[in-house]
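Supplementary Data S3. Sequence and structure tokens for construct A.
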Amino acid sequence: MFAVAGCIVYEHDLWLVAVAAIICAASSWATFQLYSRACLSVDIEREAWLILTSLVAGAGIWCTHFIAILGYDETMPMGFDPVLTIVSFLLAVLGVAAGFRISVAGRGRLIPVVGGAAVGLAIALMHYTGMQAYRVQGIVSWDRSYVAASILLSMVFSATALHVARRLGHRTRRLIAAALFALGIVLLHFTGMTAFKVEPMLIDPLMNADFGALRAMAFAVAGVAVVVVGAGLASTYIDYRARADTSHALNNMSSGLLLVAPDRTVRLFNERVIELFKLDAGDVSIGMPIDDFLTRVGERSGWTAHRLGRVLENYHSWFTTHETVTVDHLLDDGQVLEVCWQPMRNESTVITYDDVTDARTRQAEIAHMAFHDPLTGLPNRRSFRHDLETLSRERGRVLLMLDLDRFKHVNDTFGHAAGDALLVEVARRLKSLCAGSETIYRLGGDELSILTLRDMDSAVGLAQDVVSSLSNPFRIGGETISIGCSVGVACLGREADTGLVLQMADFALYKAKEYGRGRVHVYEQGMLEDAAHKRNLERDMDAALRLGQFELHYQPFYSLPDRRLTGFEALIRWRHPASGMIPPMDFIPIAEQNGAIIEIGAWVIDQACRQLSRWPDHVYVSVNVSPVQLRSPELLGQITRAMEQHGVQPHRIEIELTETAVVESSEQIVAVLSGLRALGVRIAMDDFGTGYSSLAYLKRFEFDRIKIDRSFIGVSEEDASAAAVVRAVTQLARDLSIATTAEGVESENQLKSLIAMGCGTAQGYLLSRPLTADKASALLEADGGATPQNALPLSDLSLKDASRPPALKRA
């Protein structure tokens, strides 16, 4: 070391040494400014920065060496071999270029060291090639130990400099790396010069040492070095300003941004990334591997090793997709970051982080509103259909369809606010009955449903609990409100699609309501088929009246005891082209439901009056009228027009209605019946004894006739109580001056018993079956007031005819 110091002090021009040192320091600083920029770049841009780095570094090293050579031992004449001098310059530029390129070729920790060693070796080659170009008057000798030491020092310091430049923070690393690099160059040169020994000897008398010219040359070389280094620093400055403008823009972005190079190191980031992940300023830096960045984020966020590994695995998979990836990342504090992964053509990747917490919260609220009822908070019909589709592949789900009874009455009586409060309480009670795995839905209005995993028996038990719970009174706004609930139950089998299951549950619910409400009904096999049959009938019914498929049959009435024909009951039949004769019990309920009964009923009244106009004046016709017709304001007009059009006296028309029709809408019935009575039309109560049988109705509506139901007549011979009912009704009607008719008389004993009780009129298979209009007319002509010729004894009736139900007489 002392020998090297002595060489510098005693064998060199210190002014030129100082110039060389300045050139060395400046070029080293410029070199690592450029080198750091090359490390941040990729592809062609990186190669361009490496070329500029190599030119500045090579020129600076060569100029340092050349100026220092010029300052060596001014007492000896010297010169330079121009070829070797140029070769030494090329070795400096190309050699360091190779070393720098190696140092950025990969991500391994030793790669910068290897590249730095190559740079150091190139500097040594440049130095000793330049020394070979150095011509001096004397005998040159070399100390090999110093030569080896100089080469080793150059390689070690250069390797350390590049290692530091790649691993430390950007400002610190450039300063330390430049100092190490400059020190390595200086130590190489002066250790090598210490190894250089010259024994003066006049060899070429023409060689002279013009020391002034040599010094001028040294400053000229220094000037060239300043130009080269200055150009490098200017390039760095221009790039710095451009990057500063870009950085300013990036730091004012609302999104966090990372630019990741193909070697998976951070090449660019903005301050928003630090804010979003709550990092410190030193937690992220240029050149940091993306894995280190994520590890730092995980440490700050408290991630477990498993979670960190999962995040790293996701990032690594996205690097290989080469497609845009957008995912939401939920942090532990509830913050939601949208991570967008955008590959670039140069194999770099831009990663942006947006805080979408508020947006996702709003989206979740909107989604909740879209799939939930705002009043009760229960999932709505949309959610129900979605869940039903999702769960349709699961075997064993049971669907409960609920309909609140008397809910419309609550709205009409207490107001919609009370109805809303009631629905909230209903939802609360249902939640208390259902387990966590069961889902309650509000489908709209007073319709609800429950999806459960229970078996059928347990699900029916739940349905019964629901009916029981909702039948208990509610306390709403100071009022006690009582409602009920009907439930239809269907099993969600694997073979059934969702639409079919919904139909099954709806039909079961319909049956529960049809059988009296406040009950549970399980779907039974064949319900859908029956419904399909009804739909077909309903479709065909639209054309039946237009095509003349309906016809009236007439069943005679006979007065007692003389058995004289006094009138007929008009009974509608449907002669279907494919199904044959369809009895009223199959199509009249459908017509009542869809409203077609109004048009059909008008046709029945018109046809009955038309046929009645062709019969003797003492004959009357009884027409059945449904409750739907009684609620229609058109009924009076239909009857009036028919009588006027066909010239029929009102007393020849008798309107039959059931007890149920009277109870359903008594006030309206009073108005309609008053109008009929004002016209002179007679009124009969049909099927008396099977409904409410209120004596108040007999007094209020002033019926002209009571028809005793066949269910009493048929068993009156064997059942004393049934006979007592018939006797009591007959006596009651006699006391009230109301005519009586017994239905379904099928034996002589029944007829004799009725005559003995004082019944005024009878009809039944014993007397006559329902007849077509022509046969009824023929019966009138043949009757002549005597016993009907077509009356058949019971023994002549088939079992099927003998047991025909009373519903056949529905109008």
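Construct B, processed identically:
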Amino acid sequence: MLEGTRPLFRAGSFEFQTRHLLVIAVLALAFTSALIMRFYPVKYGFYLNEFDPYFDYRATKYIVDNGLDAYWNWHDTMSWYPEGRDIPATSQSGLHITTAVLYSAFGGGSDLLDFTIVFPAVIGSLTVIVIFALVRVLGNTSAGLFSALLFAFSPAIIQRGNLGWFKSEPLGLFFGILAAYLFISAIKHKEIKYAIPKAVAGGLILGLANASWGGIQYFSIPIAIFFIALPFFRRDLTIPMYVAIAFTVFTLISAAAFPRPGMSFVLGLPGLGMIGSTIFLVIAHFLKRFSRSQVQLRNTAFLLIAFVAASVGVIATEAYLSPSFRYLNAVFPFLSSQNALVESVAEHFTPTVADYFVDFSVLIMFAGLGAWLAFRRRDDMSIFALIIGITGVYVSATFARLLVFASLGIIVLAGLGLYEVTRSIMAHRQATATPSVTQRPTAATREERRKIEFAGRGHPASGQAVRIAYTVVIIMMLSIPMFFPSNSNWLSSADSPAAIANGGTGFRTQTNDWTDALNWIEQNTEPDAVIASWWDYGYWITTLGNRTTLADNATINSTRIETIAKMLISDEQAGLKIAQDLQADYILVYTVAQVRFLGQTNNTETGATEQVPIYTLGQGGDESKKQWFMRIGGFDESKYIESDGFTPTPEFWNNTLLGKLFPFEPSSYVQLSDGRVASQPQPEWEPGLTGLYTQHIKYPTDGGSDQPLHLVYASPSFENEENIMFGVFIYKVNHDYVPNPQGDPYAEPEPTTANMTTSNEIAIINTTQGPIEIEFFPKEAPKHVDNFIKLANEGFYDGTLFHRIVPGFVIQGGDPNTKGDDSDRSTWGQGGPGYTVNAEFNDIPHTRGIVSMARAQDPNSAGSQFFIVLDDNENTRALDGKYTVFGKVISGMDVVDKIAALQTTMVGQTPQPANPEEARIISISIRESK
């Protein structure tokens, strides 16, 4: 498609033409655009972004200051006190070593911190060149240029590779794509003397990539699948076989050379997958070589069946080094984590369909076209592009962090799709106007050519107009996601301040609260002081505060994190005992609040009336994470949090150490509308009300020596009463204080027995088969009961179906997508009220007649759908503790059984009623029980 063959100069046998100049210009534009996008957060300040980059900077500095030998033997005593941490065995050594080497070569006397802040933006921008090279090999130069431009603006990649994001993703992705390019380029070579060196280099780089980012284990998936697919799409397997052997061997050698991933990669699922698929390719090569052409495909299919059976055997017998749950969850997205620590991490949240449309927008359409073309062609390069696209989207369905791989796959396919559309439009007129030059022109063909040329002369501008119109349309389409939606477009995704600049909140602002607090720690605490805080802030305290911490983002000791959670949520005496046992000298808490109003109070000393700020809490501090503290520590969060899932109860304020560390107390509860009070203040919380708070420091600086804690630092924004308060509060532990806890503070909280106290309300579900009556368990599931009653009273359920019928298991209903005779069956089971309800798992077993709430993979994703249990067996009891029971059928189980006996039809994997009207919910009404 690229035109311009006029030579500019020669270098040996290579002729540099004008089209090469165009390629360089487009790549320079892509690189520059990528750099500008990634530098956008500089307007908020020049910082490392997020948490992990501060550790990675500290580790890189250790190499620069002490050398590589010292790094390999570094046992850090400032983190995870008192045990410390084996740094090379528990971190991304590839990132630290590579950056230290590049800094020595290109640092030019600059400060290492500045170098690491800029490094991810530069390496992320250079990746556009590598993605160009990869797609060029898979397709052609034009497709590669399209992909390079798309990569420059991809939100998911920018968000994990912008200014200051000195984490594993930017360098790992650069190395991973470079390794994939070298691998594919080697496969395409026709001479083995060129193919093998590229395969070796690609393997070494992929091993280094795995040592730089654990997520690069993903690349083992498409490469292994490609090895298995090759025998079905390529005749001659000689070069692919040698390339596969060289690439796999050197990947394993390179990965094993680092303490992490080391042998866990070689003998884990990623390494065994590459080894097994390489063996499959070798055997397939010899099968094809010594088999008749008529049976080659059959023999290869039999080999595949045997390979799949062997793989199942390896997995079933667990004959491999078990990977982390995160890797298993990425490979098998249907796995559900019940670990609150894993679920508490924002980047582990499951992306929604909306996330894909926001991140990829119109690219999904072009990627779909690219996938269709790849499937039609079915050559080896097209198949690899298709595998990258499918597996990238597949693994990203587990964690939001892995959307970078969905971006990679969609960009590759979209580049190929965009090229094909553009080529068809641009080449159409030329193709129709030029007869074949391979045939001797006859009188007829000469006459036809004369007519075509005459038509072309008659409408000289038509072809040009089509090309201009197409160019304008494509530019407009690709510009839409740049500006729309207004608050979540591609440009706004790059407008994200560093976490330390905005306190890790959603506010696009800059504050010095955290940097001031960390500077105060370094200047005013003892050099050997131990700081206790939630693990989020450990890297900041160790790197910028230069003090020892109990836990950090490495999360290498989940028991320690649970202990800190117990310290914060236990009562004052138990919490102080844990803090002293941990040898903590200071406790740091972080609270975000907003000044909503100025209230009046009487000064008890002077009697004068004073204005005081009235706050609302929330937006990203410990006040927003407290429910995770409770879950990780094993506490019953309903005891400390109201049914809205956020507002603290009086029990939290009066009987938890964290409640006493927060320098606030409840003032009243009101209904807010557009930031204004829309109701009379209430002394107690009720559904729909928001808490208002005033300042109250429970452990003042000037407290007596018998006080267990003393406030020694408070953020300037707390003292200055600014609109947004990013409050870092540091308390000194009084080691002379002798706490008196009631019982063992480390004991697991007493399990609560199921409280099946029913409410004075019941629901009558009127169906086409008859009525069903259910009672509620408000003590066990208050939020779910309130939500069900609210939806029923609003008529939300009227006209919906029991859309899922599984005899011996459950019937499920409550989806608004099932309303109407013409509702789309493919959407049944996907609808909800537009919001979610946090889980309230309890001890009520899923026995016959129990009513429980349906949800997606995220435990906090319940909405409106519910199910009724049909039987009491091992399948239904497997639901215990994983779904929220909120009621039970007290009348009408015969109706439930009638619905369960209806004829069904399978739609996907879901048995749906064949005749929807037989399973219709006419209405649900709420009345008081008799």
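Confidence is low (pLDDT under 50) at residues 431-439, 450-458. Residues 762 and 775 are 5 Å apart (CA to CA).
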